[in-house]
Specification:
CATH class: Mainly Beta
Radius of gyration: 21 Å
Distance between the termini: 28 Å
Structural class: mainly beta
CATH topology: Neuraminidase
Helix content: under 10%
Number of domains: 1
Number of helices: 1
Shape: globular
């Protein structure tokens, strides 16, 4: 396992708690909206340091236990054990606090304790694991030793063309917070009337999968494909059950109370446009559907919240060049009986590891930009547990770089 990591320092001074030059706040429909401009409230004196700890995962390794394929998230339990949701290998990998491999849970399938490209992972105070398995339309709950505990049927997809990766978080006691898949394909029948409203972005369930409330307003672009693509969200939930949404293709960050009230919305200066470049196209012929997705710029790839309530967003300093772009192609076949076979394949140059296209943006608990820091590698997600911060490279190195937050 490689442990290569560079020391990352955020060189900023003490943050002002009030509005500062370069930040404007207004109230829109009763909601505070924060418009951030400039570099943020922090200055040049180092106050926050990310100290490298280890790198977990290696695409080039011969050790199958750390040879991840399209990993989606890393979580940490109360004892400091690490769990990696290894989506492409349909499993959960458990490691000790020292990064030593301990166990594997799950395999490809539809039965108890089996997954089919699982999407997300959460761990509760007992060490029980909650695995979002949207292609099997369920959340699987495993005991601390990886045994099947129960299945929560709260992820009904409804339409066979709804393919995605829905996150799952533990909110207030007894509540499970779920989100829409990051990329959705909801194709309405052209002969049917358009739905009166787009679906909410966040759904809160009880322990049995019953919906308690829904919130989070998507933007209606008056175009089916653009609505699907442009309302993609990345979310996280803090210890109080508050929900944070970041929109990768909208200049939009939102914080919600645990009961679903929108507390604030924020934006920031971007060195590129977020206008729609091309709407995409749907072609239907017979029983087949051909889709060309919209062409949109991206401004974020991850979000996490630390113990001080600071919001860490993986942002973009620029758009990826053609040779830097890596993603997945999705194939799906359906049988006459309604069964589905789904496959994901990584496409693009996965050998390229260095880039200057990413940065970490840090906001305070009220949406004010504190500052940002450059990154020199590809980052597809950020996760924080206590003082430990993880940056995920999903497609290239298929690994997690771990740091300790100081400051």
């Amino acid at each position: 396992m490689r442990t290569r990591a560079a020391l990352i320092v955020i060189a900023f001074a003490l943050a002002a708690t009030l509005a500062f030059a370069g930040q404007k706040t207004e109230t829109v429909n009763g909601v505070k909206v924060v418009h951030n401009s400039g570099p943020g409230a922090w200055g040049k004196s180092p106050k926050v340091t990310l100290e490298p700890v280890r790198t977990l995962g290696d695409v080039d390794t011969a050790d199958e236990n750390v040879a991840f394929y399209m990993p989606s998230i890393i979580v940490v339990d109360g004892a400091g054990n690490l769990y990696v949701l290894d989506t492409g290998n349909h499993r959960v990998q458990k490691f000790g606090p020292d990064g030593k491999y301990l166990a594997s849970y799950g395999r490809q399938g539809q039965g108890p304790g089996e997954f089919y490209y699982p999407a997300w992972l959460a761990v509760d105070a007992r060490g029980f694991l909650y695995v979002s398995d949207p292609n099997n339309q369920r959340i699987e709950v495993l005991t601390a030793d990886g045994k099947d505990h129960k299945t929560i049927k709260g992820l009904e997809q409804g339409d066979p063309l709804l393919v995605g990766r829905g996150p799952v978080f533990l909110g207030r006691p007894g509540e499970i917070v779920t989100g829409a898949p990051r990329m959705r394909f909801i194709m309405n029948n052209p002969d049917e009337k358009k739905p009166a409203a787009l679906p909410k972005l966040v759904k809160v369930l009880d322990g049995d999968g019953k919906t308690l409330r829904e919130f989070g307003e998507p933007r209606d672009f008056d175009d089916e494909l653009v609505n699907n693509a442009a309302n993609e969200v990345i979310m996280t939930v803090d210890g109080a059950g508050q929900v944070y949404l970041v929109f990768p293709v909208q200049n939009r960050i939102e914080k919600y109370a645990a009961d679903g009230r929108l507390l604030w919305r924020a934006d920031r200066d971007l060195p590129y446009s977020m206008e729609i470049k091309e709407k995409g196209k749907i072609e239907r012929q017979g029983g087949g559907v051909s889709i060309r997705m919209p062409d949109l710029n991206r401004c974020a790839t991850g979000v996490a919240v630390d113990a001080k309530g600071r919001i860490w967003v993986v942002g973009m300093t620029r758009q990826l060049r053609k040779e830097e772009q890596v993603g997945t192609s999705v194939s799906m076949t359906m049988s006459s009986g309604g069964g589905r076979t789904i496959g994901y394949q990584v496409q693009g140059d996965t050998e390229l590891r260095k880039t200057d296209a990413y940065k970490l943006e840090v906001f305070d608990a009220d949406g004010a930009l504190l500052g940002s820091m450059p990154l020199d590698f590809f980052v597809d997600g950020v996760f924080i547990y206590g003082d430990r911060l993880f940056l995920m490279d999903k497609y290239r190195g298929t690994q997690f770089k771990e740091y300790r937050i100081k400051g």
